[in-house]
Design the sequence.
C-alpha cells in the first residue's frame, strides 16, 4: 500500500488535499480514525492511503512505523528565481547541512519507478510550468522508499489553485495506474535542476533514483566522495543498474575513483 502525505501548514499541499478529498468522498475511500497522533485525517481504500499530517513533511520520520510500500509527499516548491515548476525528487543530504530535515551525509531510500511514473504524468499535462527532476535534497530521513512531488516557484505559483487541482487529478489517477518499468539509474553531476537527466527519463525511460549534483561533488574529498557514491547506489528500491555521469567537473582522482566503484558494484555507466 502507498501512502500519499499532505501537510496542513503548507498551502500547496493542503489545497491539493482539498481537491482530492472531494473525489475520495465520492468513491470507495473510507474516512478512517487516525492511526498515529501525528495524523489529522486519513482516507484509505486498502491500496492507497491519503494522509493529512500535522507534522512538517521535512520531519516525518514517524511514517516509517506504518509500513507503506512507498511514501509520496506533496509539497510546495520554492524557487529563488521564481521559476514556475512541477518537480519530483528523492530525499537526503549530500553535505553537512541538514537545515531542512534528515541528517548530514545521509540518504533515504529512493523510489525511482514511482518518480518516473509521476514525472511522465506531469509531462502529459497542459501547463506552462517546467517539469523536472531535482537533485536529492532535504529530509525526512526514511527507510520506506519515498519521493517528493512539488509545485510552485513564486508565492503566486504556490498559491495557484489550478496547480493544486492539476496535481490532485494526477494523484487520483495514480491509484489505478501501474508504475512505469524502466532502467534504474543514478545521476552523477549536473546542477540542482538536471535538465539532461529529465530528458533521458522522458525519452528513454531512465528511472533516476538519487541524483548527486556537481555542487556537492566539488566539496568532497576522495573518502567522502566514495562514501556518498556507495550510499547513492545502495539507497534505492529497486537498486540501480546504471550510472549516468557528467564528466565535466570530475578531476582525474574522482573520475578514476568513480569508475572503480561502479565496476566493483557491477554498474554499467554512460557519459553525457
Sequence:
Amino acid at each position: 500500500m502507498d501512502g500519499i502525505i499532505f501537510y496542513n501548514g503548507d498551502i500547496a499541499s493542503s489545497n491539493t488535499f482539498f481537491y482530492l478529498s472531494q473525489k475520495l468522498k465520492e468513491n470507495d475511500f473510507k474516512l478512517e480514525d487516525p492511526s498515529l497522533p501525528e495524523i489529522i485525517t486519513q482516507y484509505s481504500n486498502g491500496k492507497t492511503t491519503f494522509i493529512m499530517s500535522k507534522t512538517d513533511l521535512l520531519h516525518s520520520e514517524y511514517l516509517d512505523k506504518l509500513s507503506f510500500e512507498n511514501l509520496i509527499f506533496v509539497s510546495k516548491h520554492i524557487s529563488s528565481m521564481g521559476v514556475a515548476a512541477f518537480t519530483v525528487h528523492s530525499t537526503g543530504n549530500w553535505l553537512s547541512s541538514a537545515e531542512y530535515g534528515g541528517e548530514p551525509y545521509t540518504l533515504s531510500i529512493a523510489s525511482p519507478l514511482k518518480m518516473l511514473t509521476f514525472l511522465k504524468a506531469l509531462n502529459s499535462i497542459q501547463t506552462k510550468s517546467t517539469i523536472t527532476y531535482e537533485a536529492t535534497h532535504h529530509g525526512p530521513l526514511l527507510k520506506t522508499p519515498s519521493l517528493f512531488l512539488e509545485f510552485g516557484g513564486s508565492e503566486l505559483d504556490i498559491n495557484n489553485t489550478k496547480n493544486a487541482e492539476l496535481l490532485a487529478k494526477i494523484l487520483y489517477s495514480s491509484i489505478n495506474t501501474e508504475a512505469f518499468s524502466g532502467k534504474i539509474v543514478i545521476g552523477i553531476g549536473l546542477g540542482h535542476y538536471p535538465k539532461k537527466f529529465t530528458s533521458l527519463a522522458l525519452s528513454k525511460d531512465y528511472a533516476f533514483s538519487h541524483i548527486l549534483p556537481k555542487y556537492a561533488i566539488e566539496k568532497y574529498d576522495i573518502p567522502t566522495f566514495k562514501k556518498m557514491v556507495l550510499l547513492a547506489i545502495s539507497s534505492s528500491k529497486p537498486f540501480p543498474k546504471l550510472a549516468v555521469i557528467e564528466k565535466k567537473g570530475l578531476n582525474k582522482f574522482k573520475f578514476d575513483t568513480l569508475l572503480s566503484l561502479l565496476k566493483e558494484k557491477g554498474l554499467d555507466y554512460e557519459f553525457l
